[in-house]
Specification:
Mean pLDDT: 85
Low-confidence stretches: 230-235, 291-301
Strand order of the largest sheet: 2-3-1-5-4-9-10-11
Number of helices: 9
Structural class: alpha+beta
Strand content: 15-25%
Shape: globular
């Protein structure tokens, strides 16, 4: 593994030199190709460099212990070694995950749909909380976020909200957020201080490209209507909102986030293509499972994470069993530990099978 990681770092440095070369910068197509390859290696190289720092500290501590001439220094080195070993083990696991072969869709942008489930207005409020969590996470990853469709409530939540995330490796990270998110808390709207439990469903789809899926215009029914905001107040006076129905599958998408009907139609088509692409992949995966005789169920709508905000504080991933006692940190967008924990548990399951 070390040789492979060193080769990747060498490649990263070579790409770094190329994207700084004035001759390459002058050729934008070539520069963009190198910049994408460089960005793709950033996470694994950053983790490898941290690992090398820790590994060097481990070597130095072991040398001091082996020397034994200074007992006090050796005792300090022993304590340092106790802290370093689990850190190194964690980085080794993280690097194994980063070296896993990627899904062909991992580098695609993502369409994220958040919908309030059981819990009425409280579920809508928590849908808003999750949307802001993903906003913060996108900012930390330097991704761009564009709202495609939203049904806000008067109290500041969302019955549903659909948005596009664009950037490096978006779908590869966000796809693990698909499923049911459950929250237990005392809502701000609850005057009696009673604990409510509600659920929110998150679906993450890879953004389909033109080459991914072809849609026959005859299979579409396109309706227009007036866009409206919370409380049913019209936000413009023309029929700018668009609803597209794909008749063969019954798939429906709506978009009212843009001012013009043309823009809403374009956004709705992006959403529709992504949904149909996901349906196509799901069908292919099901057929492959039948051929292979695979018995394990992939539960798309299963509960993946619980957020307990009362009577105690805990966020738990139901797949990897990873926990955090700091819900505020998680809801502020610090999701990487959960993503890596899930990947780590998946890696372990793969070895056990």
């Amino acid at each position: 593994m070390q040789d492979k990681l060193q080769a990747l770092e060498d490649k990263y440095l070579d790409l770094e030199a190329k994207i700084s070369d004035p001759d390459v910068i002058a050729n934008q197509a070539e520069w963009q190709k190198y910049a994408r390859a460089h960005a793709k290696l950033t996470d694994v190289v950053a983790a490898y460099r941290e690992y090398k720092i820790l590994d060097k500290a481990r070597e130095e501590a072991e040398e001091i212990i082996a020397d034994g001439s200074d007992r006090e220094l050796a005792a300090m080195a022993q304590e340092e070694l106790k802290e370093l070993k689990p850190q190194l083990a964690e980085y080794e696991e993280r690097l194994k995950i980063l070296l896993l072969p990627s899904d062909p869709n991992d580098d695609k942008n993502a369409i994220v749909e958040i919908r309030g489930g059981a819990g009425g207005e409280e579920a809508a409020l928590f849908a808003g909380v999750l949307f802001r969590m993903y906003q913060h996470y996108a900012e930390s990853r330097r991704w761009s976020l564009e709202i495609m469709d939203a049904s806000p409530t008067e109290l500041g939540g969302f019955k549903e909200i659909v948005f596009q995330l664009s950037g490096q490796g978006v779908f590869g990270r966000m796809k693990f957020e698909s499923g049911v998110h459950r929250v237990q808390r005392v809502p701000e709207t609850e005057s009696q201080g009673r604990v409510h439990t509600s659920t929110v469903t998150v679906a993450v789809l890879p953004e389909a490209e033109e080459v991914d899926i072809d849609i026959n215009p005859a299979d579409l029914r396109i309706d227009t209507y007036r866009a409206s905001g919370a409380g049913g107040q019209h936000i413009n006076k023309t029929d700018s909102a668009v609803r597209i129905t794909h008749i063969p599958t019954g798939t429906i998408v709506t978009c009212q986030s843009q001012r013009s009907q043309i823009q809403n139609r374009e956004q709705a088509m992006i959403m529709l293509k992504s949904k149909l692409f996901a349906l196509m992949e799901e069908k292919q995966a099901k057929e492959l499972k039948e051929i292979q005789g695979e018995q394990k169920e992939i539960a798309w709508g299963s509960q993946i994470r619980s957020y307990v905000l009362h009577p105690y504080s805990l966020v738990k991933d139901n797949r990897s069993l990873f926990e955090s006692n700091n819900p505020k940190d998680v809801l502020d967008g610090n999701l990487d530990d959960f993503i890596y924990a899930y990947l780590k548990s998946s890696l372990k399951e793969g070895k056990d099978e």
